[in-house]
Write a structure and sequence with these properties.
The complex is a heterodimer of chains A (187) and B (164).
Chain A (H helix, E strand, L loop, with lengths): L16 H12 L3 H20 L5 H17 L10 H16 L26 H6 L8 H12 L4 H8 L3 H20 L1
Helix pairs in contact in A: 1-2, 2-3, 3-4, 6-8, 7-8
Chain B lengths: L14 H45 L1 H6 L7 H26 L2 H31 L3 H28 L1
Helix pairs in contact in B: 1-3, 1-5, 3-4, 3-5, 4-5
The chains are: A mainly alpha (187), B mainly alpha (164).
Chain lengths: 187, 164
């Protein structure tokens, strides 16, 4: 059941966390309209995110459907220590990764590698405004981290939880992606 | 809802596409719902009675009672009453926004946006009932949406109370 200890008025999208938890509780009680509210709130974002990993519209729709169906099916297991969006995105990512297993691989990067990578401008988001078109040329692992961090504003700690890597690995992947994007944009 | 500006316009799903995706998801929800609808009617009414009483006290119970005369069925009476109560609160929202401090104002405005989204769904279900007829599931959804709307108004009012 929903953990009410984390109730807050922080806004995470259209609804505050408190409102979202109420909507989720109603959905768990069998209220179809509550499911629809959740769907309407997140379908655009999830679809756009997943669309960055396939040019095939049918595939994009299928990942989105599967993510929502699984999220709704397991809604009573949802814990409010993360937002519904984070939970839904994690499920969506897993669905996409299941189908792309041969194409997506997160390198086993140890945290101590971070010392050798400069982080000086990892936080500089200006590059992303000019590099959107080059994003699809990145390997899927780099694309996942870039999109989650830059487009969806997740922290490295959250990304690490979502895709099962270390926080340091997430930072390194983002840094490398940014270097690659710089090259792609300048050529 | 505000779109994520990172993505290009062509990345967003179209309205028909979203409805198509929903139509695939909906049967899975409906099958989950069947088992639970019957058991939650009482808790629904008991759970929301306090909110309704609070709202009636605020908007004036007499004006609400006056509206009981015209509709023909119990269901219509309920919707008419809920519409009247929420309409009065809707009229009050600009005043609440005006008198709120900066932090509360943003919160009230966002909640008002959320209520507008709920209104859209209420209208959608009402139109569906008009065209395709009613069903227990549609009635259930409609009442739940009104209950969610009342909850959101309650949140606005209680925020206002905390401020003062």
């Amino acid at each position: 059941m929903v953990d009410s200890l984390h109730l807050s008025n922080k806004r995470i999208g259209l609804y505050s966390i408190t409102q979202e938890i109420k909507i989720i509780e109603r959905a768990i009680q069998g209220d179809q309209s509550a499911y629809r509210l959740l769907y309407d709130s997140y379908v655009d974002n999830l679809y756009c995110f997943l669309a960055q990993f396939s040019e095939n519209v049918v595939q994009q729709e299928e990942w989105t459907q599967r993510a929502f169906i699984k999220a709704f099916d397991k809604l009573n297991q949802f814990k409010s220590n993360s937002s519904f969006k984070t939970w839904l995105f994690t499920i969506g990512l897993n669905e996409m990764r299941t189908d792309m297993r041969q194409k997506i691989h997160f390198e086993d990067i140890q945290d101590h590698h971070l010392e050798h990578e400069t982080e000086e401008d990892v936080q500089d988001s200006r590059i992303w405004n000019t590099a959107k078109s080059a994003l699809k040329k990145l390997s899927p692992d780099k694309r996942v981290v870039c999109l989650l961090h830059i487009a969806e504003s997740y922290s490295h700690a959250e990304i690490a939880d979502m895709i099962g890597i270390t926080e340091g690995a997430s930072r390194i992947i983002l840094h490398r992606a940014k270097k690659e994007l710089k090259t792609l944009v300048s050529t | 809802m505000k779109k994520n500006s990172f993505y290009n316009e062509k990345d967003f799903p179209g309205i028909k596409q979203k409805e198509d995706i929903w139509s695939t998801i909906e049967p899975y929800i409906s099958s989950q719902e069947k088992d639970s609808v019957r058991f939650h009617w009482n808790s629904f009414w008991i759970g929301n009675a306090a909110a309704v009483v609070l709202l009636f006290a605020l908007v004036g119970i007499y004006s609400t009672i006056e509206n009981f005369g015209t509709p023909s069925t119990n269901e219509e009476q309920v919707y008419e009453t809920l519409s009247t109560a929420t309409k009065k609160l809707q009229d009050l929202t600009p005043l609440l926004i005006q008198s709120a401090n900066e932090q509360n104002r943003n919160s009230i405005e966002s909640t008002a946006d959320a209520i507008a989204e709920i209104d859209r769904l209420i209208e959608e279900i009402k139109n569906d009932i008009t065209i395709n007829g009613s069903s227990p599931s549609k009635e259930h959804s409609l009442k739940r949406l009104y209950a969610t709307k009342l909850d959101f108004y309650k949140e606005i009012l209680l925020n206002q109370e905390e401020q003062s």
